[in-house]
Amino acid sequence: MFLSLPVVPFELVFIPEEFIKNTPKLHSKKYKFSSGCQYACLFIENSFVPDEVVKAFPSKTEVKNHDMLAAMVVFDLWVNNIDRTMSNLLLEHLSDGSYFVHLIDHGICFPGGYQWSAKTLTQKLNYDIPYQETYRWAFSMLNEEDFTSFVDKIVSLPNELIYEVTQSIPEEWGVSNEESAALYNFLVEQKSHLPNLITNFINQYKSNIVN
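The structure assignment produced for this chain is given below.
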């Protein structure tokens, strides 16, 4: 919301236990679904995961919001998202034949991924950026200035705003006060590393494009 990222619109919704009992699709041996405050995102019509469908990814002229791919990269570096594969994008096919990119699935963010904790958030990060086909595709459509301008946008975010966001995590999600404080400290510190991180990213992917 504050960064205008093209994430799929979402709401926090209350799911009663009765709803789970009366919905056969939620009766899973693999996953345990529980009642309470849950994350719910909008279903996007005419959309698909590019990794599963296309052989050639859309070009710059075909992607309506290609500038937002720079925002995606910088955001991922900020929150240490190591899982931005082509399976974690949605391409919405628009009526004029172009595409709109939506970002999905941010489950493996922060040091520690699914199991992040106050301890993992304070561990020293390995800042080597894992190569991703998604980023190569994004880099091929963008200029270096596209990335640096979004770095400035994140760096200028007030720390008070970041604190409010970390404090707004629903109680049902089981994040302790210690963990929310560690998350706040991680995000604030990571802001200071963004200029160097994006410089390293640009150098890495510029080299990949050349080679």
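Interim note for the steering committee: The CA atoms of residues 166 and 180 lie 6 Å apart. The mean pLDDT is 90.
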